[in-house]
Specification:
2 domains; five-stranded parallel beta sheet; single chain; alpha/beta
Length: about 350
């Protein structure tokens, strides 16, 4: 396990050095941490067993109880957060994600407890087999959340020179900038002003087209907001054709190149959206990094789950294959039992 920890750590470090904007970095990091944990467990367990043979079963039981309690707390917190989302943001499907995940966790815990009292052990086997795809999804989600947080911590501390600061748009409310978008603009403005103080002359770009229910483009509302906060109108470049993040990046890149800006760029979005924007930025071949601005705490869980689903879908071929393999034992067992 120690050797595997070193190998995974080296692979992680090399991959981040090549480009930190990779989802696989999170997979490498979590693999290294799991190997480290297993190595520590193997190192400690013989010593505990030799010290007191009766202590070891209680340690295993305590660990199992701790995992169950942690999952229970997580499920309850997500359900409560889902209720808050419904109350504050409405009943759109995206606002149901934390509630759905919380109910799924609580449902799996209930199934696990019921399986312990099943004399035929079929329910226990089903619980274990269902745990295979659940484990795969959980591993991917944990790797995403872990590395996304590290990536944002790294970009917040990296203050290298950039040729442009691009603030990505989001929906307007009655044609005006809502708090979510204001957070992006405030953070982007502070980064732009800091670059000016350091002697740079970066472009300031606002990116966002006009939605079907919006009276004007997001870029126009964003530019007005920046003007109200002391920026001269001539210093703001508008990109008003995009309808999603991928188009934000592509159209902003074209705008910058048309005006002779080809150097590193800082994209600004909300923290829950930052890593996916970085993945799309890398795919587009745009040099630079993404910085996340603060988001209301109650909004973060559902938004993070939504971003994970989008990234998961972006790699749908690989994930479909892995999920199919993980579900196969459950399907085979169900077919055998049905014919028995």
């Amino acid at each position: 396990m120690w050797s595997l920890t070193i190998v995974w750590s080296a692979v992680f470090a090399f991959s981040v050095w090549r480009d930190p904007r990779k989802l696989r970095n999170g997979i490498y990091l979590l693999s290294a941490l799991l190997c480290l944990g297993l190595g520590l467990g193997r190192q400690v367990s013989p010593e505990l067993s030799q010290t007191n043979q009766r202590f070891w079963p209680y340690l295993i039981l305590a660990g199992a109880v701790a995992i169950v309690l942690l999952a229970l707390v997580l499920g309850v917190v997500l359900v409560l957060n889902g209720a808050t989302m419904l109350r504050r943001e409405g009943t759109r499907p995206a606002n149901l994600l934390s509630l759905g995940l919380g109910l799924a966790i609580l449902g799996y815990l209930t199934l696990s407890l019921l399986s312990l009292s099943d004399p035929t052990n079929r329910l226990l086997v089903w619980t274990i087999l269902i745990g295979l795809p659940v484990g795969y999804l959980g591993f991917c989600f944990l790797a995403y959340v872990l590395y996304s947080g590290l990536y944002q911590g790294w970009t917040r501390r990296r203050n290298g020179p950039v040729d442009a600061v691009v603030v990505l748009g989001s929906g307007l409310v009655d044609g005006r900038v809502p708090p979510l978008l204001a957070s992006r603009l405030d953070h982007g403005l502070s980064l732009w002003r800091r670059a000016l103080e350091q002697g740079g002359r970066p472009a300031l770009v606002v990116s966002g087209g006009r939605g079907r229910d919006e009276p004007r483009s997001e870029a126009a509302a964003m530019a007005d907001y920046l003007v109200e906060h002391g920026v001269e109108p001539d210093l703001i470049w508008r990109e008003e054709a995009s309808r999603n993040t991928e188009q934000n990046i592509a159209h902003s890149q074209a705008l910058l190149r048309a005006r002779g800006v080809v150097g590193p760029v800082t994209l600004v979005t909300n923290n829950f959206h930052a890593f996916r924007a970085a993945l799309l930025m890398r795919r587009a071949g745009l040099p630079g990094q993404v910085v996340g601005s603060p988001t209301a705490g109650y909004f973060w869980p559902s938004a993070t789950i939504r971003e994970f689903i989008a990234i998961f879908w972006d790699h749908k071929v690989l994930n479909a294959a892995m999920l199919g393999l993980s579900v196969l034992p459950l399907l085979v067992s169900s077919w055998v039992w049905a014919r028995a």
